[in-house]
Amino acid sequence: MELSKQDAAMHQLNVAIQLFLAGDYLASLTLAGAAEDIFAGLCRLKGLTTAADSIADFHVNDTDPALTHKERRGVLFKVMNRGRNQAKHANTVGEDLVDVDQIHPLQMLMRAMPMAESLGAVRSPEMRAMRSWVKEHPEAFE
Fold first, then answer.
1. 138, 111, 139, 90: which is closest to 39 by C-alpha?
2. Where does the pLDDT of residue 8 fall: very low under 50, low under 70, confident under 90, or very high at 90 and above?
3. Which phi and psi (to 5°) does residue 120 adopt?
4. CA 79, CA 59: separation in Å to the nearest integer?
């Protein structure tokens, strides 16, 4: 069986949302991060701005002005991807723990969902459920 990259990412996204809503933040983070990465690649291939690039562009001037533009973007990407990278890499001495707070998979889901739609994906029942959850849980962003 073969799937398009977009269909594979949609499946990962939908399962990530199911896991998030069930409280499994580590598994949700892993799948949401994988989906976000595929959607970002597909956006780049189509000349679309990725969610992370849009966020970095918005906040680049909020970072250390002594850094170059590229370094400032690097700082932002390091922060945005910290949770996902902790969950998928074991290449830093002394970094033995993974932060599985709710905010990390939530951020990945919130980056993946708009990219999926910008690529023409139809909003799934899981995506609708996630949007409802976000509206019902403002405390998640405090």
1. 111
2. very high
3. 95, 5
4. 12
